[in-house]
Design a protein that fits this description.
The complex is a heterodimer.
Chain A (H helix, E strand, L loop, with lengths): L7 H11 L3 H14 L5 H5 L5 E2 L8 E6 L5 E6 L5 H14 L4 H5 L12 H4 L1 H25 L1
Antiparallel strand pairs in A: 1-2, 2-3
Helix pairs in contact in A: 1-4, 2-4, 4-7
Chain B lengths: L19 E2 L1 H7 L5 E5 L16 E2 L2 H5 L10 H10 L7 E5 L5 H12 L5 E4 L2 H7 L27 E2 L1 H7 L4 E3 L3 H5 L23 E2 L15 H11 L7 E5 L5 H12 L4 E5 L2 H5 L20
Parallel strand pairs in B: 1-5, 2-3, 2-4, 4-5, 6-10, 7-8, 7-9, 9-10
Helix pairs in contact in B: 4-9
The chains are: A mainly alpha, B alpha/beta.
Amino acid sequence: MTERDLPPTLAQIRDDFLELELQTRLQLLLEFANELPELPETYREHPDLLEKVEECQSPVYLFVEVGDDRVVHLYATAPRESPTTRGFASILVQGLSGLTVEEVLAVPDDYPQMLGLAQAVSPLRVRGMSGMLGRTKRQVTVKAAALS
Amino acid sequence: MSVDRDPSPEFAQYAHPERLVSGDWLEANLGAPSLVVVESDEDVLLYETGHIPGAVKIDWHTDLNDPVERDYVQGEAFARLLGSKGIARDATVVIYGDKNNWWAAYALWVFTLFGHEDVRLLDGGRDKWIADGRAITTEASTPTPVEYPVVERDDSVIRAFKEDVLAHFGKPLIDVRSPEEYSGERTEIPGYPTENALRPGHIPSAASVPWARAAAPDATFKRREELEGIYLGDAGLKEGDDVIAYCRIGERSSHTWFVLTHLLGFENVRNYDGSWTEWGSAVRVPIALGSEPGEAPRR
């Protein structure tokens, strides 16, 4: 997949970040953090269904659903005290949900590096988001395999 | 000009009570002209979600570390940073942060490398301030920039490098990481695997004293008596000892450095900030595995 083939949602998020000054990129990340949707009730009551992402500095839990139509839905939760982690999770939730299995798996692994956040939040922290993307793809692979 | 110290009796037990302030003291002194409050967190966005009114933010990655080399910023960048935050050389700086003041202690240690004299920690940090129901705001602080002099960083007194550790064998080392990292079962702390080392284990002869043993459940520091039990009793440090503390990248060991230096009064404590991410990846340095300290190599 070449960069211009990024799914439109992810491309839009990338462009939104890149057109901002460095400091304002942090503000946008904070807006994403605040927009992270609450978990659906099923997962709130069953935290055991969520997978912990070990690559992140703060605890973040992910859960992927793949429908019969092979459309992916991603759910994530992270504490209010970890807004950066919440922001990363929210970007993925907004950018990946509704894509097909094939589209999610084709997202470049270095998408987190395309957002221009390395300087604003540090490369180390951006790696946490790469971890989340990797976990998401792995869950998608496993769950798509279970469908067929 | 500095602000009077916090006279709270609970700090009098420590070797340097002037290094701590309580929430009551800070609340009463907010707005004092020579006081600057600094928030320093692990999470780069946490400050933006709410901070102590008037506090400025200093980030350990993006502000205190050099963007290219693995080192702290030099004097010019430090002067620019502090000047832009409205911190004068003679200002009283009170630092607080998340996670039991880990990063706050780290920032305090870096301020000390530059010889900033009056720098203190808010006991209990951000969590306790909020738990006590004190004011926080999302309103951006607008410090008036001041001139901060360009001061050369002094790495010779409180900072240790790998070569210093090699030359230190025979004297006490404190490993403040988790027991699993110390024994070599894992190279990173749970949830932090992004900063790895190639080999697990610990520096031979280092005593294992996880940093969190110094913290009470409300994120304040434990009483001196308890701290003495841990560091003098369990870890076997003796008054006057020359000590080097390390962790993974030097942040948790800054917390321990603060405890040993300012609360217990050790005068020769250095923080090895290269820590396990350097030692565990370095060529031909001794490593011990398991839960026993192991012998210091003979030199």
